[in-house]
Design brief:
Layout: E1 4-10, E2 14-21, E3 27-34, E4 38-39, E5 49-50, H1 52-64, H2 68-71, E6 74-81, E7 87-89, E8 95-96, E9 104-105, E10 111-112, H3 121-125, H4 141-151, H5 153-157, E11 161-163, H6 165-174, E12 180-181, H7 183-187, E13 192-193, E14 198-199, H8 201-206, E15 216-217, E16 223-226, E17 239-241, E18 244-245, H9 246-254, E19 260-265, E20 269-274, E21 291-295, E22 301-307, H10 311-327, H11 334-346, E23 354-356, E24 371-373, H12 382-400, H13 403-408, E25 413-417, H14 419-422, H15 425-434, E26 439-440, H16 447-458
Parallel strand pairs: 1-6, 6-18, 12-15, 19-25, 25-26
Antiparallel strand pairs: 1-2, 2-3, 4-5, 5-10, 7-11, 8-9, 13-14, 16-17, 19-20, 20-22, 21-22, 23-24
Helix pairs in contact: 9-16, 11-12, 12-15
Length: about 450
């Protein structure tokens, strides 16, 4: 009789659930649904919030669509999700299991996501300096809690526990009083030292931070507990992994050797490779560095160049052309236009037009915006512009993490993944030109698959 591991990713826009067969590690079933949980910011504070109850309803629908006969043979459950964000709840009372084999959210706050913009540069500069190699940015859990502490302290008094959305699901499944959190999620909250695996308690206490809201830290890849009740046909007493970061799990799903680098281009773009086992990051943030170090497994780190400019830049280009055409009285759908742009660039193998595509800036250089230079009468065709734009996206990410640095790190191949790479042959050509290492397009990076594989390999 086959047994399965359930992997769930609670993402920014959707929930995905997969069942992996434990013996073969093959995906036996999967389902994804959009959460449609965004809350409109009516207060003008650049808030980015989501409705926790709707996210949990989507989670229940998603798992309910998996084959019941396979769910009854699930041997463990893993969760990953959007890092940085924070949701508040009232201990065990944060959900309702009444007469059902699933839970619904109760007495929780909204989820304040990683995209939240309420913490201005001035506000962030007023916070104490963390004893950590990672900077604190708006949308990070601890920064958000500081904001409530200063602007709406009565809001925090309503709640006993805080965590990421995936930590909340784990706590409810296991019937925990508090919240357990892995270094992968804790590091993305800020004020967490990944060398000691401890919160900056003394720094936070000195700033009046509500320490009761800090989760208890447990190792990445370890267990948080067992299900306290039957859940969608999965028996009570089933082991549940402590929740992991979606980025680390997506890398785990497609990095088959330590000598691989993973290039993911979907909405944004990331290039990452595994650091040597004995690597330890600095004790203070390096905000001007384009490379960050994310905690991975067994005390190891991933070197990550995370660009804000990826497939979204190409989408903006298409939207710009569509709106121009509309003003000129011509109509063409985005998808039809996208296909024509790619075909025109396939016929234009190179271009002397230079496009710097950083229309969103970068975290390490927020004021460096996009540019188009070296314009002449001979390079203004759509083929030139599309080719130069795709080349620019790759030139930007490789300026953050040059191919030479990958070679020095012992990287022998590039694993390409993500929707922008999958749907754009011009981008794939530019990927292959950007790196001397061979490029393979394996399975797409998938956090839900990755978190299931972590449990499969460790338990």
């Amino acid at each position: 009789m086959s047994t399965y591991i359930l992997g769930v990713d609670v993402g920014t826009t959707s929930v995905k659930a997969v069942l992996i067969e434990t013996g073969s590690r093959a995906v036996a079933a999967s389902h994804a649904l959009p959460t449609t949980s965004d809350i409109i910011d009516g207060g003008g504070i650049k808030a980015k919030e989501q409705h926790t109850g709707r996210i949990i309803d989507t989670l229940n629908r998603c798992i309910g669509l998996l084959p019941r006969d396979k769910l009854q043979h699930v041997s463990s459950i893993g969760l990953s999700g959007q890092m940085h964000g924070v949701v508040f709840w009232k201990g065990k009372g944060g959900c309702d299991w009444t007469d059902k084999d699933f839970f619904t959210a109760r007495d929780t706050s909204q989820l304040i996501t990683w995209q939240d913009g309420r913490c201005s540069i001035d506000f962030l500069s007023s916070l104490p300096k963390p004893r950590s190699h990672l900077s604190v940015a708006t949308g990070f859990g601890c920064a958000t809690i500081f904001w409530y502490m200063r602007h709406r302290p009565e809001f925090l008094e309503e709640f006993a526990v805080a965590g990421t959305i995936q930590d909340y699901v784990v706590s409810m499944l296991c019937g925990l009083d508090g919240c357990v959190m892995t270094p992968q999620n804790a590091a993305s909250w800020g004020f967490f030292n990944t060398s000691s695996n401890q919160w900056n308690v003394d720094i936070l206490k000195g700033a009046g931070f509500p320490l009761r809201l800090l989760p208890q830290c447990v190792p990445s890849g370890g267990l948080a507990g067992q299900t306290c009740s039957d859940w969608h046909g999965i028996a009570a007493g089933t082991p549940v992994g402590a929740a992991l970061g979606d980025f680390q799990c997506s890398v785990y799903s497609c990095m088959s050797a330590r000598t691989d680098a993973v290039l993911n281009i979907s909405t944004s773009a990331q290039l990452t490779f595994a650091m040597p086992a004995d690597f330890k990051p600095a004790d203070s943030p390096q905000p001007a560095s384009p490379v960050s170090y994310f905690p991975y497994f067994e005390g190891s780190y991933l070197a990550v160049a995370a660009s804000l400019n990826g497939g979204n830049v190409l989408a903006t280009f298409v939207e710009m052309l569509t709106s121009w055409m509309r003003e000129l009285g011509a109509e063409l759908s985005d998808s039809c236009l996208y296909g024509k742009l790619i075909n025109s660039a396939l016929n234009q193998e190179t271009s002397d037009l230079t496009v710097i595509p950083t229309i969103l800036g970068e975290r390490h250089n927020p004021l460096c915006l996009g540019q188009v230079t070296n314009i002449s009468t001979t390079n203004l065709s759509l083929g030139h512009l599309t080719r130069a734009l795709c080349h620019g996206v790759l030139a930007n990410i490789t300026s953050m993490m040059p191919a030479e640095r990958l070679r020095e790190a012992g990287v022998t191949r590039i694993v390409g993944s993500g929707s922008a790479i999958a749907h754009n042959e011009v981008l794939r050509q530019e990927v292959e030109r950007a790196f001397p290492q061979p490029v393979v397009y394996g399975q797409n990076a998938d956090s839900a698959v990755g978190v299931a594989m972590v449990l499969c390999d460790r338990h």
